[in-house]
Amino acid sequence: MIIAKGMLEILEMANSREPKTFNDFTKISISGRKVSSATVSKRLSELTSFSAIEYIVHISKAGRRVVAYRTTEKGKKILNLGTTLEKLVLSKR
């Protein structure tokens, strides 16, 4: 497999206007099955190490530290490439 399970879905979700939290990513489903928390954690770590996403730390209204993620320019390129590859593979089936 070229792209690991959940990677494109996380990049896509993180590509929205508002940064997304870990809990947002745990709502991702692939083929009707939720992506496990362990997989989300691993993918976030991998994508951060590739500089495809970046994390942002801010303080909530309740005074709690909140970590959120958003797609970087490099991540947007990976997302576009991954989406194109996925379409090619699906069209060959």
Task: Give the arrangement of secondary structure elements.
Blueprint (H helix, E strand, L loop, with lengths): L6 H8 L5 E2 H4 L3 E2 L2 E2 L2 H13 L3 E7 L5 E7 L1 H20 L1
Antiparallel strand pairs: 1-5, 2-3, 4-5
Structure write-up:
The protein is α+β, with helices and mostly antiparallel strands and about 90 residues long. The chain has a single domain, classed as Arc Repressor Mutant, subunit A (Orthogonal Bundle), CATH 1.10.10. It contains 4 helices and 5 strands. A 3-stranded antiparallel β-sheet has the order 1-5-4. The radius of gyration is 14 Å and the shape is globular. The two termini are about 15 Å apart.
Give a quick rundown of the structure.
The chain is of the alpha+beta class and 93 residues long. Helix content is 48%, strand content 22%. The strands form two sheets. A three-stranded antiparallel β-sheet has the order 1-5-4.
Question: Order of strands across the biggest sheet?
Answer: 1-5-4
As for the CATH topology, it is Arc Repressor Mutant, subunit A
Helix and strand run? HEHEEHEEH
Count the beta strands: 5
Helicity, as a percent range: 40-55%
Q: Would you identify the regions where 5 or more consecutive residues have pLDDT less than 50?
A: none
Under CATH, the homologous superfamily reads Winged helix-like DNA-binding domain superfamily/Winged helix DNA-binding domain
Integer tally of domains: 1
* Helix count, DSSP H or I runs of 4 or more residues: 4
Instruction: Using the CA coordinates, give the radius of gyration.
Output: 14 Å
